[in-house]
Structures are given as C-alpha cells and as structure tokens.
Hints:
Elements: E1 7-12, H1 19-23, E2 33-35, H2 41-47, H3 59-62, E3 70-79, E4 87-93, E5 96-97, E6 99-104, E7 107-113, E8 119-122, E9 130-138, H4 142-145, E10 182-183, E11 187-193, E12 195-207, E13 211-222, E14 229-236, E15 242-249, E16 254-262, E17 278-286, E18 289-298, E19 303-308, E20 314-320, E21 323-325, E22 327-332, H5 344-356, E23 361-364, H6 373-382, E24 385-389, H7 402-419, E25 425-429, H8 434-443, H9 454-468, E26 474-475, E27 493-494, H10 518-521, E28 534-536, H11 545-551, H12 562-566, H13 574-583, H14 590-614, E29 621-624, H15 647-655, E30 659-664, E31 671-677, E32 683-693, E33 698-708, E34 712-719, H16 721-725, E35 733-738, E36 747-750, E37 763-769, E38 774-780, E39 784-790, E40 796-798, E41 803-805, E42 811-817, E43 829-832, E44 835-838, E45 841-843
Parallel strand pairs: 22-23, 22-29, 23-24, 24-25, 25-26, 27-28, 37-45
Antiparallel strand pairs: 1-2, 1-3, 3-9, 4-8, 4-11, 5-10, 6-7, 6-9, 12-13, 13-16, 14-15, 14-17, 17-18, 19-20, 20-21, 30-31, 31-34, 32-33, 32-35, 35-36, 37-38, 38-42, 39-41, 39-43, 40-42, 43-44
Helix pairs in contact: 5-6, 7-9, 14-15
Enzyme class: hydrolase
InterPro entries: Beta-gal/glucu_dom_sf (IPR036156), Beta-mannosidase-like_N2 (IPR054593), Beta-mannosidase_GH2 (IPR050887), Beta-mannosidase_Ig (IPR041625), Galactose-bd-like_sf (IPR008979), GH (IPR017853), Ig-like_fold (IPR013783), Ig-like_GH2 (IPR006102)
Domain Glycoside hydrolase family 2 immunoglobulin-like beta-sandwich: 196-301
Amino acid sequence: MELSGEWRLQHYEVGQVPPLQLADAGLDDRFWITAAVPGDVHSTLMERKLIEHPYYGHNDIKCRWIEEKEWWYRTKFQLDEAPSQEERLELVFEGLDTFATIYVNGLEIGQSANMHRSYVYDVTRIVHRGKNTVAVKFDPLFLHNRDKAQMQWSSYTKERPWIRKAAMNFGWDWGPRMVTTGIWGKVHLKRSKLARLDSVYARTETADKDMATVRASIEAKCFNRSVEMTYRASLVDALGGTAAEAAGKLARSRAEVSLNIDRPKLWWTHDLGQPYLYELEVILYADGQETDRYRKPFGIRTIELMLQDEHGRHAFAFRLNGVRLFAKGSNWIPVDNFIGSAPDKRYTDLIELAVESNMNMLRIWAGGIYEKSFFYDECDRLGVLVWQDFAFANALFPDYNADFMDNVRQEAICNIKRLRNHASLALWCGNNEIDWLYDMKSSDGDITCPFYGESIYHQLLPEVLEQYDDSRPYWPSSPYGGNDANDPEVGDRHNWQVWHGSVYPRKFGDPTMLDYSVEGVTFKNYKKDDTLFSSEFGMHASANRYTLEKYVPDEEFYWGSVEMAYRNKDTNHQKGILLMEGFTGIPSDIEEYMRFSMLTQAEGLKYGIEHYRRNKARTSGSLIWQHGDSWPGTSWSLIDYELLPKASFYYARKFYHPLHLSLDHDPREPLKLWIVNDRLQAYSGKVTLQVYDFEGKLVRTLETAAEVGANTAVKLGEWEELDILGGLSPERALVRLSAPGWDCEDNYYYLRDPKELDLPQAQLTASVDAELGVVTVRTIGAVARLVTIDIPQGNVRMSDNFFELLPGEPKSITLRQADGQALMLDRIRIGALNAASTTPLFHR
C-alpha cells in the first residue's frame, strides 16, 4: 500500500516544540499545509504560493531560509485488519532528504542520515486496526555538520563531504545552491505473511544466437523457521510464452537458479538492434502458499569493458553481446533541482531525446543521485546503456570515520541491489574526477593531507560489488589511468583543455597550468586528443529565447545584464567570450549572443566528435558534458530546462548518426573525406562532394566510389583546398557531402570560421500548414546560415532546426508539442545568421 494520500507539512525553529508533541498521533494538524509525497518542501511552498518561483530572477536567494528550519511531514493511513502472528508489516521509505526521524503512532522507530538509500522499518507491533499516524521530522543540515572537521578540498562548499546528499544541491558550475529537504521517494506499507522475497539478482552468464544462460540468486526472509520455502522462477517472452522455467527449495533462505533459453532474443542498444525485454518472474511459496512475487522486465545481454584490444594495446571499449561499441552519448545531471517533484514524463522526454539524437549511452554523474528506478526502466525499454557513477564528486571524504564508512557501505549495497538487474546498466564507476583532481591540487600545494576517501573507491566499493554484483565492470574514477589520471594513453579521459583552458600534457606531480586565451580554449584543440574514451567534454551555449524570457525579468533581458550573468554559474565567464571571439566574433547584443554561443557549441562539438569517430580504431566513446539542465541557466547542456533542444542537439542527430560522412579539414589544408559506419552491416555505393558559392551556384561536384565495412571508419579520398575550390574564394564556399541511396544525413561545411565568411544577406520566406504541423522554409538570393525556428513554447520537438539552406531547395520541418498541447504555430518566428526574422504565412 503506497502512502501517497494526504500529507501535511509545517516548519518550526529548531527545538521550538518537543518532537514527541508534534509526532503524537492525536495532534491536530488541520492547519498545516497539504503536501505531495514524493516531493520536497520548496515545490510544496511554490504550489501553495508561499514562495515565488526560485528559478525566476534572483528568487533562489530569497529561499535560503528553508534550509535553516526544522520541517515536519504527517499523514494517516487506515488498517482494516491488524497484522496476525504470521504476518509482518514494514514501512518503506524509498528516499528521505536527508536527516530524518520517523515516528509511527507517536513512537520513534528510526532515523535516516542518507538521501541516497532507502529505509525499511518493521512496524508490526506498533500499528493497529483502524487509523494510524506517520510523522517525519527533517533536521536542518547545519545540526549535522557544524561540529565536523572540514576537508581541505570540497568544490563549491566545504560543508558537504560529511553529508550523504546530492552534491549539486549546494551549487555547481551549472546550477544554483538549492538545499532541498523532504520525502523525495515513495512511501509504502508492505504486508507479508510467513515469508517474503528479500532480493532477486539475475544476470546473463552466457549468450549467443543459439543459447543463453541466465543465473538468478534468490534470497528470502522467513518469519517462521519451521516453514518450508520453495520457489518458481521463469522468463516469459513478450507473447506470454514461457522461455525458461525452474523450481525448487530454498536452503537457508537462499537458492541459485539457472535458466537456459533456446534461440534467445538479445537486448541491444537501439542503434544496433532491438532492446528486447523478457519478463523475469520469481514466486515464493511458504508451505505451498504463495507469499510474495517479483516480476520485472529483464534483458538478456553480455557487457564487457575491454582494457586491451586484440593486439594487446591499451583500450577502453564496451563490448555488448560480443560487439565492440562506439559509445555515443552525454552526461546526465538531475533533471531538476527539485528532484523529488520531477515527474516521470520529464525523464521519458529527456531519454527519448537522447535516442532521437542517436545516443546509445548516458553517464549518471556522481554529483547528483543514483537515479530513480523509472530512469533505468526507460533506458532498458529504449535501448540506452548507463554508465553509473557512485555519488562521490570533487571532494575529499572522511573515510577515516567508521560511522561514515558504514553509511557509505549501506548506500552502496542498497543501490547495487536496486539497479543490478537492469540490462541498461553497463558500468559502475567509483567517483567523478577525485583521483585526478587530488593529484593536481596536491601538486599545486592546495592539498597537503592524505587522500581521504581513497579507500572508498579502491577498497570498499570493489569489495561490495564483488559480493553483490559481479556481472559488470567497475572503474575506480573518471577520468582514470596511466601516468596521469587524465592520460590519453590509458583509461578514460575528460578533455577540459577546450573551454577550461587546461594545459596538456601533464604527468602526476606536475604543477597545473591554465591558458585563458583564444588559442588556449578553442575547440580546435580537440584534434590534438587521441584519447581512448572521452567521457566528459563540452562548452557553453545560451538557453533558447523562450526559456530565458520565462525566467529573466524583462528589464534584464539584454546581453551583459546582471541577470544574464547570474544565469552562468561557471567560475570564469571569460571562457565563453574567448571561444566566440575566436570563432564567431564577440556578440554585440542578446540576439547575437544566443546565436553565436549556440553555433560555437554546435560546431565545436561536431569538430571534436567527428575527430573521435574517425579515430574509432583507437577511440571508443564520446560522452558530451552535459545532456540537460536542472534549472534555466547558461550551461554546457544540449537541451535547456524547458526541454527545448539547442543547436548542438540537432547537430548531434547528424554527427552521432550510425552512418556518417565527415570532412577532416582546417584552413589551407587538404580536404579529407571520411565515412564512419557503426552498424553491423557493410555498405557500398557512391559518395558525393559538392561545392557551392553563397548564391547557391554549384561550382564543383566530385563523386567517389565508397565501400565501408561493418563497424569501421574509412578515409575515402583527399583533395587540396585550391583544387577543390577551382578559383572560388574559401570565404565564399559551402561544401555538401551526401550519399544518395544510403540511410545517411547530408553534412555541410564552411571552409572558414563564421567571422571570416563573406556571407551575403539572405531573405527567408516560410509557410505553415497548421493541420499537419509542418513549416516549410525557403531562402532567396543566398545560402541561409543557421536557419532557426523559434516558438514561444516548451518541450517542442522538431524534425530539424538550426540548419543550412540553399536557394531553390525548400525544407519542410515537422513540429509537435511533446506534452500533447496545441502548438503556437501563429507565433513562430524564423531567422538565420544572415537573414532577418520573419513570420511565416499561416494556412489552416
């Protein structure tokens, strides 16, 4: 029974009222406000109009008082029958944020000290027939860290290392400080008779096209030792047929089961096949009576992390069902600062957008949470692999404290057991950037103490995983490996030369250096990176107009305003200026800022990822920082807070396409034509390279015979820039790559940076078919650069946006609003870098 009915919420000063008085079953709480559970205090106060929206303007500062108070939740539930002697009633909290004391019928039953784990309390002897009361008291955090020793290093704030809570709540370089509290997970009452299942752990031991073996470990909790416990385990296919079945007895409350499946349907990422899911069912019987049942989707697949290739060289590559994978994806932060109140639909939208942009992997970053179970369910369903960090980010942690370490151990066990049956889960990773940054900060003298926390990632977590999940690889940190924790020759790498200006190469013990110059931060540095796996890299871009206008006061909506600066939480705002200065030029107003920053991010990511993909014989993955936003700011995200994709998202659809044409070119250098094929089939045909001038005249056509094997990259040809242009100025040239007859996106290249181009003014015309939700765009007189469709509405999906358009080649774009709302088609504006905005003709 889920306790999701009416909950009440109230706050007090610390110690203002004795706890037992507020926990008393007979307390009159009619005058408390109602609250949703799961949820959080901030969202409840917003909904009741007691605080202004914290994301608007500087309102987050006005909400700081919330973290200083003591908060109480109360609810009641009805029991028609009291538990019998053969039964147990357990109260389960899936998420408490963070220091909570729980009372049932006025009695204290336990305390929590970790946002990242669930808590189960036996309340059999406390509840009774009729009405029962649950009360939960949340302490302000300062009560639990004010007397703790501060670590020498903890990014953004030194108060968080002792507190097992989402690190980003304290602020990060892409989001504000928003210290939440409340019941963020579901609460339910579980009634069990005689016995219940304690855990089911299923993993694929072997799998090929002929046979698969799935091993299941079953553990039960028995309330009467004289009872005989038996089980039945089965895998059921989508049509309801039983693919494999086994039955037997539990010995000492445990059983090991092998299920053999003939001609199994394997789980694949969506780009390589079907993410097929069986249903795994385990039924527990006590003296022949069914007492508990587990039934969840289960994908049959094998996953490995290759650290050496077939020639014995260093590698870092995932192998799914025996196939070496190029991981294409992004880094996932919490979908909202108000984690408990974020709806499931927001998760579905963001994961669907990952699939739409041809991603096959998401990395759950360590500074957030172990995501809600719904996230992994959706990744299983949609065919997206998950790299899972443990929740340790950018700080030293007190591993010398026994209580802290026990808390961490229970956190790890809880989440490993919760997530280990998911086919999508590919890797456990110990932390984010701690090993790497510890060395850098020690080398610079900022840290002089031992590596506090090291035993967590290099001892505790591997030990716990060996016991609870031996079916997938573990990696101690990200980045990690080699003569530098960020070594391109060994392990995975975070490339923060681009944007942050980090100077590479660097070895252990070397002092760190930053180069804040156009040359130091430019995305052209990606070409110097021969990493084995790039697990974090990126650059800022503005949010879309609608998102900014919704949260920025009108009088502050201009380039250079204090409010616009407040949207950017990065440590040095100069980086974005330097990137644009070197590529587009520095913007002069808000319009140019939105366009220039988006274009720089999109073209920069294209430049780097195409380099990584061409190098796929060595490089096996690229995970962009970052996928979405937790609030409406300026950040590295591909998708802004209102679920509106930026230009980089639409570029990603093309540069992450499984079959991709690319041009390796820098000014005055040869043009090298490549094709990358991530699919498991070979292709042969013809690839066309066309050169246009900016008036749309076709200047040159080259047609090349092309053959590319399965899962490989091939260089098709190379031409000198002067020969290709045939007298056309490179500042007035546009190159188009296409492969007629292949499922392959056209790809466009300008041969000089935007600030150097001699782009004439174009004139856009457009029409809207309201019935079909289709916008058709044309350009007259010149190529239109970065055609942008703006609509003042959130969560709008478009078949394309931020694209190039040639005269005489109209382009039709399909739009839909992903929440099912009517599209505001009559308010669409369409513009380009070299074309004034226009309103399309409207046809019903």
